[in-house]
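ESCALATION

Customer reports they have been waiting on this structure for their group meeting. Please prioritize. Original submission:
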Amino acid sequence: MAKDISNLQDRALLVFAYLTAGRSGEIAGTVKKIGCQYMDSGGRNILLITMPNLKNRVRKQKQLPIPLDREGELVAMLQEYLDLLSDENILFPFCSRTAREKMKSIVGFDIRYMRHVRATHLVTMYDFNEQLLVRFMGWTDSRPAKYYMELRWVDFLSKM
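Update from on-call: job pushed to the front of the queue and completed.
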């Protein structure tokens, strides 16, 4: 889906929303390019994204490691846009409402839906447990997980 978006900022918005599972207020108008750093961690190349965590009173920021060996194609699409910015530029310099409207016009669904998709993928494709999911999504506990994961029978068949 992202490959079909020609506008680099719009494509980056979709990819960033998916990779981070960020809320629109955490994505729009907040994250600077400098908050996206490439590094090596335990022999794996990652893109470490540091962003605000708006609904957690304890952890005000979250750091999300995006592994290039698993998400490299998406990171490359994001990087095309990052290459246009200086370190202090805000990635998406608009309000959260605009981010939601842009996402709706780009792909036909709300940015919040990307949180559902990412939460489901983290469990089904990355085998995240409850605590890892809580940490990645920026929740204070696991109660929201039941609303965010969209598991199908084929998702748990492989575990049986």
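Sent to customer with the following note: DSSP finds eight helices and three strands in the chain.
Escalation resolved.
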